Amino acid sequence: MQPIRTFNVSPALPPQLEPLRILAYNLYWDWNVEIKELFRRLDRDLWESSRHNPVSMLGMISQARLQEMAEDEGFLAHMERAVRQLDEYLKERTWYRKQRSALSNHQSTNGDTSTHPQKECFAYFCAEYGLVDCLPIYSGGLGVLAGDHLKSASDLGLPLVAVGLLYQEGYFAQYLNADGWQQERYPVNDFYNMPLHLERNSDGSELRIEVEYPGRTVYARVWRVQVGVVPLYLMDTNIEPNNPYDHDITDELYGGDLDMRIHQEMMLGIGGVRMLKALGYKPTMYHLNEGHSGFLILERIRILMQEQGLTFAQAKQVAQSTQAFTTHTPVSAGFDLFPPDKAMYYVGHYAHTYGLSREEFLGLGRENTGDLASPFSMAALALKTSSFVNGVAQLHGEVSRVMFHSLWKGLPIAEVPITAITNGVHARSCVAKATQELYDRYLGPSWSEKGAKDPLWERVLSIPDEELWRNHERSRSELVVFVRDRLVKHLRGRGASPVEISQAQEVLDPGVLTIGFARRFATYKRATLFLHNLERIKQILSSNKHKQVQFVIAGKAHPKDIPGKELIREIIRLTRENGISSSVVFIPDYDIHVARLMVAGCDVWLNTPRRPREASGTSGMKAAMNGLPNLSVLDGWWDEADYVRTGWPIGHGETYEDAEYQDEVEANALYELVEKEVVPLFYDRDAEGIPRRWIAKMKDAIRLNCPFFNTARMVREYATRAYFPASDRNFVMTGNNYAPAKELAAWKESMFQHWYNIKIVSVDVSATEQIQVNQKVSVKALINLAGLTPNDVQIELYQGAVNADGEITNGTSVVMQHQGKDQQVDSIYTADILYSASGLQGLSLRVLPKHENLSSPHELGLISWA
Ligand SMILES: *Cc1c(COP(=O)(O)O)cnc(C)c1O
């Protein structure tokens, strides 16, 4: 039955408890122990059953309980402390202000104060956000990373505004049928009972965004999630007068077919830009976290053309100078690709607006513009229109440079302008409450934001072993209790037999070495690798009564990923058939809450991806912050961690052609490590039963990983390396009525016109074939600049060792000095170089574009070699 009217009924709080409403609507409660504890204290059962949702809790709690708390002085004092902490938090975000203080003192020559940092605004776009478990609009690592990014941006006081979609169904809840086959349930998100504000116009009506789709306009309303000082705006198309199909655009995260995917990405990118505009934001740079939001570039260019009267080239220049793009996958199959006709059908009208032909327009999204059969790639679009591009770990940066080398033909792979900013995790969100209090006590309350150089990390060594260990053992017990409860609940839910239920009540042993593995069930992550040799694993699990091992496994397979689901069923089947289902346990419905319990309560964190398929991985960082050693293939972040002191590497970073052989080798390496290293170290106890050497490793895991693999460091890196420079370029480009942008666009065009006429006439080297280390070599080159001036180009010597293929590897470059003209024609360049290494060394010369407003010499993709 359809209601004739709907009402949004809000809870009636006693006036003394009104502050709870304010606390509930700022997600800061998630990473402030005091505030979280306050809500837990209000009603423990409701707190759990509401999935830790203070808003729905306030709506469901009985008036009697509210009255009782309104008269409880202890509670009221606790609430006051919580309110004070939120107030202080909102006021005291200073890192950004210090970094950009130069800006606020700076007055540009024409008295323009637009350079004031308060006017700076960084727009962050992502298709999913994993912030708290009661807001299930994420599917995995990308979302949790984006959520952590916002939390740290808030901690640092960045003027960041985030954009996303509010999914009606969110990500699915997982349960298993009797056969171990994953089933999905899509709980419907009740937005009015979540920490969301509906954005309204000044007359009280809902704020609406409009985006044109073929033959119709689609409307979205806007919800705000307040993440500390950072607002996250989410669009929701589930409103009238949208047609039923359009209602579903924001129905399901990554749901539907390719057409639905384009619909979603248009709303995210195009709708997102319009939404920020409608809300009054004027971003000074844009950060695309993964390519899903790539269409935003099309809309930005349109607005710049129509509102500022710029040409396509000028508008594209402004957009590019102020855009950063982060790629998250190491395989090209991971990118969204749309067939050319489909791309034209949905966004082809932009070609018309820009005055571009079909192929010129599609070329914006093609790695190779000349390949007219190739699809429109969101990653190519983002890459070609960004001035800062990064992968999410050092190894992933390397892999990405190879993967996208074709966009910078002629450039040595090492110089492909894709850098890396290694991921992190938000410390206060992933470290268990009791452990945070332990760190607060021994390291001081600012540990969660301190870098590696800070001496406080040495104080980890002074945490008493007994205290650290007792705390950890408590976490393990809590995990075991949680696992049993959850299993029982799920078994009851599917009507399992009393025998099965009573077995579930006894799985795991709170005193046994517990290895955790939790991640999306994609085949490359090889969740079943540890079961590769069943006899071997059975031995490990129970060979010695006093040195047992148990495994806790969790993770969801994408609903359409049949091989991924097979893996889950395989684990269930193998553990049952081999009688090991009480020591190898799969926890259904992995989410942020389960993750937090696991990374605190396991003893070792296992990861077995096929290198280099794991771009970064972050759950291992969460585990390390809680003091867990990692046991992992050298991939993603682990490849750059201190994997000897803070855990164990599986293998040595090899890559394999033969997958079966690889599984065999790496499974054996895993068994060897568990038997010979992990188990002996864990069970090596002193007279008081304390594993001193194990605890030493835990402390190393904390003190060496915490300071680096966190989002405080990561967001500072994004800010200083990407956001500030892009924002600075924005002030330059838009100043003086866009004159610098116009000039740069015109300059680029002339570069493309003249570039291929540049001639390297001669290169003279003052050396014979045989030279000695530290001998100076002088080089003189004559270059015909073909209508360009010495200000337009940089001439560089490029030198390095020559490999077996006769190519210079790991080259370095030396800028040559312009020395005037030779007979009024060719430009003379000279440089001296000093050879510091012996062996066969090669020397070459190259020409690169040069302009003060370029983000890098590689922005045009032009390079000429001698
Ligand atoms: C941290 C986290 C992830 C990402 O973990 P990976 O190691 O990158 O696979 C996924 N889902 C949840 C719920 C998480 O908390």
TrEMBL record:
It catalyses: [(1->4)-alpha-D-glucosyl](n) + phosphate = [(1->4)-alpha-D-glucosyl](n-1) + alpha-D-glucose 1-phosphate. InterPro entries: Agluc_phsphrylas, Glyco_trans_35, Glycogen/Maltodextrin_Phosph, Glycogen_phosphorylase_DUF3417, Pyridoxal_P_attach_site. It holds the Pfam family Phosphorylase. One of its GO terms (molecular function) is glycogen phosphorylase activity. The modification N6-(pyridoxal phosphate)lysine is found at K622. Residues 13-135 form the DUF3417 domain. Its cofactor is pyridoxal 5'-phosphate. Its EC number is 2.4.1.1. Signal peptide: none annotated. GO terms for biological process: carbohydrate metabolic process. The keyword Transferase applies. Keywords: Allosteric enzyme, Carbohydrate metabolism, Glycosyltransferase, Pyridoxal phosphate, Transferase. Gene3D superfamilies: Glycogen Phosphorylase B. Phosphorylase is an important allosteric enzyme in carbohydrate metabolism. Enzymes from different sources differ in their regulatory mechanisms and in their natural substrates. However, all known phosphorylases share catalytic and structural properties. Belongs to the glycogen phosphorylase family. This is glycogen phosphorylase. It comes from Crinalium epipsammum PCC 9333. The lineage of its organism: Bacteria, Bacillati, Cyanobacteriota, Cyanophyceae, Gomontiellales.
